[in-house]
Amino acid sequence: MKDFWTSVLEFAHQTTLEVGKSLIKDFGQIAATRKPDGTLVTEADRFADKAIQEAVKAWFPTHGVLTEETEHIFPETDWCWIVDPIDGTTNFTRGIPIWGISLGLLYQGTPVFGYVYFPQLNNAYYGYWSSNSGLTMPDGAYCNGKSIKTSPDAPSQNHLFNLCARSTHILAKPFPCKMRLLGVASYNIALVSAGAALGGVEATPKIWDIAAVWVILQAAGGIFYSLGESTIFPLKVGENYGSRSFPCLTASSSELITLFLPLVKP
Length: 266
Known about the structure:
The protein is α+β, with helices and mostly antiparallel strands.
């Protein structure tokens, strides 16, 4: 019998690879409609959402699922997958190849494993973070099987800081890094995890945007700082997370949180 964590990694790898191959066929070729919160959705999002839910049921029949497109109520199960079937739908529909599939595995409401795959970049970021859960599990953060760590560097104009579209107010302030706006919350935070950027800010991410990369960032040595609720996790059974946002600042070290925090506040 396979080790549980081996099965978790295999499931995440195989499922995102298969779904990603199907999504690439629709890349830049499919129309989107606008949801009530102003974000876009396509038939590709719905297909991926359904395919991933079915895969979870096949691999882990006792696990719950919370997804962007259909299931917003946090279930009463010890284990729950939080799914973003396409993070970066605007990029996906406009033919920009930065978009991904995000899977976060929660134990008793707190993420312990995260996997984000960017099909057209062929990059898979994943990590393990026990979060004082008492679980016996692997540790560390990886990209395509290679260990990743956040950068130890001090900020300069040769280092990067990632923005979301709703955080552009900070451009009016002198900032110690170059700015990048890539349009995908999970990719922004993955780049901090891998040491490519020193930090980033997200103004309105939903729980499916951050559940997986919350793990990966901390496993890589980074800091996730909530700009809203003081404590995001554990999630609460029976609560609807469909419309709640979790603004956050991420950085490669606690010292940079202190430096960036006054600059990103509205």
